[in-house]
Protein: Signal peptidase I
Amino acid sequence: MEEEKAVSPKNELKGEAWEWIKAILIAAALVFLIRWFIFATYVVEGPSMQPNFHTGERLIVNKIIYSFRKPERGEVVVFHAPQGKDYIKRVIALPGEKIKAINNKVYVNDQELDEYYIQSAIDDRDKSGKKYTEDFPETVVPEGSVFVMGDNRLNSSDSRAIGPIEYKEVVGRADVLFWPIKDMGIVKH
Structure:
């Protein structure tokens, strides 16, 4: 017959404590990996993305999506701006495309852009006889870059001022608005 070894309560407690420590370390490592390599949080600062995003709102940014594909028109992205801060803007034009604004309308490759995401704001400005988007001359987006604009065209430092944004400067796509809780939801692109 085999003899059963008795485990002292002290050793049993040590074993259980060690299992808890391992579980906590694994969880912390997973949180670190997810936070630094897959997702990030971003706090909206300033009015440049109104009426869709407001100061103090918090977003979850998908950092890995552009490892598999390039940004697409209409997506809301966070990028490293030349001033050393991260900005949030909307992708308006892609590499090789021509972009310009004339008479309150944005054109990509001479086709008027459907700006459904800010149409009500454009209409409100039109009613008062004011422009929502100032005219700017035609620009060709370089390869490996995107042309971004804030949704609040009259109050945004974007590609019209700082130039096209290189892919390598794009942090990721804003996917979820999680604060304030009453506005929580998936970001519409």
